[in-house]
Amino acid sequence: MTIAVDFDGTIVEDRYPEIGEERVFATETLRMLIKQKHRLILWSVREGKHLEDAINWCRERGVEFYAVNKDYPEEKEEWNNHFSRKIKADLWIDDRNIGGLPDWGQIYQMITEGLTWQDLINQASRRSLQQHEAPKKKHWWNR
Length: 143
Description:
Elements: E1 2-5, H1 26-35, E2 39-42, H2 48-60, E3 67-68, E4 91-93, H3 104-113, H4 117-131
Parallel strand pairs: 1-2, 1-4, 2-3
């Protein structure tokens, strides 16, 4: 699967143009996805030195992207008369999602188990209901 991943606010806390603190389990999750043969594309508004800083920050933590702000590594702007920064991916991980950014454990679970936000909400609701169920009434012989 090809997965486009935003940097600021997603992999790290949003402190642009600086690099914020890593979000918990972000690079660990990305390394696991790479190991499982997913193609990760860094999809960022960063350009120039700020983009290189983000790439190097990820590389220092063992995250090598398949491509950066393009569909495949060899893509050149001059080859494409209709060049667009819109990435062709199977899914996108971005802090600006409707509903916000799930935590990285949930993101991993959604990708590897094919779950949706609604699936996670339903699971959490079922767990919550189970924890709050009234204790079963004891019969007179079990007192």
